[in-house]
Amino acid sequence: MSGLEIERKFLVHKWMDWKRLASSCSHIQQGYFAAVNTVRVRIRDDKGYLTIKGPSHNGGLSRYEFEKEITLQEAQQLMLLCESGVIDKHRYLVPYAGHTFEVDEFHGDNDGLVMAEVELKSENEPFESPDFIGKEVTGNRRFYNSHMRKNPFKLWRDTLPEEYR
Predict the structure, then answer these.
(1) Secondary structure, 3-state, 1-52
(2) I want to staple 128 with a disulfide (CB 3.0 to 4.6 A). Which of 6, 97, 123, 155 is the partner?
(3) What is the CATH number of domain 2-164?
């Protein structure tokens, strides 16, 4: 897949039972390469992906994304070339009111952080949020996976309200 990625990102209220709404769950590990743009390799269950993301526009709402599926073996080999700080998370897909929210539950140094993203067809597309959606963090670099590998949640978790940590 390649093209313009338009998404909004939110924190998830910890005390709400959002997992029961999920239609699927997958385990994701992703590493990053030194580059001007974001270049990552991802292992999602038993599949591999190579992704290149361009700079963000409109406050982090949109950016160009190129993604190509690669073999699991290729992804495992590329992970060995990545910089330190692998992102480890489970992703739950939660369909709601005509959209699918991707809810990421982080592990390792980012344990305790839960975020949701919704991809949109346009920057102004309206959508309805489920009750578990909290504060919007779209465009806040602190919540970019590529940033969290170097500045993990464990170092700044106390800066968030209790309901999000």
Answers:
(1) CEEEEEEEEEEECCCCCCHHHCCEEEEEEEEEECCCCEEEEEEECCEEEEEE
(2) 97
(3) 2.40.320.10
